Amino acid sequence: MATSETTNLEYAEFLNTVAAMDDPHGLYSPMMETHFWGGISRNGERGSFRYAPKPGYADLPVTFVSWYSAARYANWMHYGRPLKPAGLGVTEGNASNGAYDTATWVRNRDAQYWLPNCAEWRQAAFFDPAENKQRRYVTGHELPTSGIGPWSVNYFDGRWAAPFPHLIPAKDSGTARSASGTLGQAGNVLEWVEDLVGGQRMALGDRCCCLLRRSNRNMWIRNILM
To answer: Where are the transmembrane segments (predicted)?
Structure first.
């Protein structure tokens, strides 16, 4: 899995490449522009769409991306970020091409980029190879504090640590870091995983559940969130 969450700048590059002419798969959500957590605006009309991060949002993690859009982003990365509109070999896959077969949404064996499953996500978040055991929290065995720093979370005890829009730059080295080197698994935005719960896709992490212990992190959501 990636070291950090995908930024608005990175996702806007993806949209400008695959969804400039049209967006048949709904890779862009209007909430990205209208909601204060959203960080990407779209201008122009079909045939000449242009996407750009909202002022001050370029380095913040992208939000309002559906699970299926995230899987298509993984396909695009798997194919080497081709400069072509959405389609097979760009955002779409089948049983022998791409990270995901977009007919069945099953990860292909030779995937180079993919959404982690719950076990992979937990391993990256909580396992400390130096101690060869699981940490109690992403940042260690001690309760994290509220604030922006290497051992902190960005939402704690009913208040925000980060200024409006209450998100931290995805690649900020001050974001809570796991023993494996990943950033943001203890807060910021929800992160999609492959697992299904009750037929719905699961997401882990997020600022509001950042202090839940690993045994309780199996939250699931049914809507297009982050």
So the answer is: none
Q: CA angle, 29 as apex, 24 and 32 as ends, to 5°?
A: 150
| Among 201, 84, 197, 181, CA closest to 138 | 181
DSSP label at residue 128: E
The SS3 call for residue 30 is: coil
C-alpha torsion angle, residues 27, 72, 48, 52 (rounded to 10):
70
Decide which of 84, 107, 130 is a domain's last residue: 107
pTM, 2 dp:
0.86
- What range does the domain containing 55 cover? 8-107
Residue 97, strand partner residues: 94
Per the domain annotation, does 3 fall within a domain? no
H/E element holding 10? helix 8-18
Please report, for residues 23, 43, 146, 148, 211, the alpha-carbon distance to residue 49 in angstroms, rounded to integers and kept in the order given.
Answer: 9, 6, 40, 36, 40
Tell me the three state secondary structure of residue 102: coil
Same domain, 82 and 166: no
Half-sphere exposure of 144 (CA within 13 A, CB side): 32
